[in-house]
UniProtKB/TrEMBL annotation:
Keyword Hydrolase on entry: yes
Organism name: Photobacterium aquae
PANTHER family, per the entry: 8-OXO-DGTP DIPHOSPHATASE-RELATED (PTHR43046:SF2), GDP-MANNOSE MANNOSYL HYDROLASE (PTHR43046)
Key words of the record: Hydrolase
GO molecular function ontology, one term from the record: hydrolase activity
Protein name per the record: Nudix hydrolase domain-containing protein
Amino acid sequence: MKTVIDKLAWLQIENGKVLCARSKGKSTYYIPGGKRDPGETDAQALVREIKEELTVELNPESLAFYGEFVAPADGKPEGTVVQVRCYQADYIGDLAPDSEIEELAWLGFDDIEKCSVVVQKLFVELNQKQLI
């Protein structure tokens, strides 16, 4: 049986680089975001998660769906996949790691090996579209 981990992510691209985060005690980077709480919409969950993790406020009116990516989940049993719905949005505030986040980094296509499998899929698409 396949287990699906359903996540939301904020895709922020600046100067050909993608904002990525690394959790405390981990070596792999991912796109900031998280899981919905019961009853939350994608927008509500993403705004909450980004505020918790990065100390910035996403503008809910600016949220735009970018795409959905599915890949084997890092560090989980075989058959477990992560499904990530990526959104782009404007933000207010200064980016800073908070909560379980140890480090933020602006990564480009050359950094793909540092990223989770699902983020690698996203990076390939962004590179093909010449966004990174």
